[in-house]
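Email to the structure team, subject: Protein trichome birefringence-like 33 model.

Hi all, the expression group asked for a predicted structure before they design truncation constructs. Nothing fancy, just the tokens so they can compare against earlier work. One-line instruction: predict Protein trichome birefringence-like 33, return tokens.
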Amino acid sequence: MKFWATYDFTQFVIIIRRLIVTYVMTTLFVLQSADRFNATLMLETLRGKRMMFVGDSLNRGQFLSMVCLLNRVLPETAKSLENFGTSVVFTAKVTTLLAS
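Reply from the structure team: attached below.
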């Protein structure tokens, strides 16, 4: 006799469906209520400071996403990206960019 044939999965399916609907609704709410990323504001906030991402590949992905977002507002002469083995250093030289 098979165990799964006698077990009722309807409650399990209902719970999974509720979790999926809750996740989708929460994600849609966050996407609709989130402000747009302001690269200039971030650069102004970090002026004269250092920010470090330490961790695994997820943190590296977040770092690279941030670099891509900041890359749009910085001219080529005001930024540098250096590789030191597994470490990556992004430097933004923001002096006259935000004043204009």
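DSSP finds four helices and two strands in the chain. Residues 52 and 97 are 23 Å apart (CA to CA). Ping us if the truncation boundaries need rechecking.
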